[in-house]
Amino acid sequence: MKNKRVLISGASVAGPALALWLSRYGFEPTIVERAPAVRPGGYAVDFRGASLRVLERMGLLAEVQQKQTRIGAITIVDEKNRKVASMPDGFTSGELEILRGDLAGIFHEATRHSTEYIFDDSIAGMEESDAAVDVVFQRGGRRRFDLVVGADGLHSNVRSLVFGEEAHFVRYLGYYVSIFTVPNHLQLEQSGVYYGTLGKKVGIFSQGDPREAKASFFFATEPLGYDRRDTAQQKRILREQFQKEGWEVPRLLEMMETAPDFYFDSVSQVKMDRWWSGRSVLVGDAAYCASPLSGMGTGMAVVGAYILAGELAEADGDYAVAFANYESRMRDFVKKCQGIADGGTDWFVPRTRFRLWLSNQIWKILPYTPWKDMMIEVPLKIGNSIQLKDYGQNAVEADPVAQ
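Given the sequence above, the corresponding structure tokens read:
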């Protein structure tokens, strides 16, 4: 097979999923990750339709199901914790829900014997020739690979090196989000609570360990300038945005200071005319982030990794053919998944008083209307809208760890 040595940037979800398939097809994957280890914590991620079938083909569905979480009732409350409205049960959970950190841990365990992992490092530069890609690492190492894959998220390093500045591809949707773990002081049981004011929404969810909960903060603002690696600065931004809010907000901001897994980022999508150039290709959020409000990002990443690896195997390593086929198969699916978040953000976190009022009225009547089923059925239909090709005939003996 040609072009067997594949460097993957990113060890969260898309990268290890791709590595699992590549190793089964006889490729030699290496993953480089800026963090010192697999990142723990994070918000819950969903699987629907085709992505569930990919998990099954990976041999990991049962293991993911063992760690699944599922939010039932979600209540919208006012400042005095009185119920204002509710969301349909299962509205945020998909067919299968798991904490991102738990999923990343499962994927890492399934690939660590068949994939070389390089932690606490990143790609500093790349030089492509007709024969290969010479990669310089941040810590000073230099190696040669046949192909390079950017599976490194919304702020992809590979995308910047190959395609140019992030600003050309990242479409800001007008909001920022922060998520972190807190003690389950409200004693929630597989349920969630939302509190919203103008341009802001705060949630608390119990999803796994009954002692813990996840706090989520959304707020509307113009684009902010800040250091993405300066957690202290991000916490200051969050405190400034929510310092005048009531309900449980002051207590959550206090708990934020000792949270083990603070996350802060913009709510954005990635829109690109092309996901590959030469010997480099993007997968997952790096290529087509749909934003956290779509609920489809992880599913797209897993499906994209499956198709990219399968096309490379079927093309016997002919990357130009494989990359083009991968993009062709994924394009329509990505467009539909991203469309879930398009136009819906202003209803989830309203920015005008009229929309805030109207949003609450809609949530009040929703459980008693046929719309509640549509809000669950439409994402499921989109999740099933891509046909998965069977690449099994190209697989070598499967990784025994993943069985």
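The mean pLDDT is 90. Try to locate this feature in the token string yourself.
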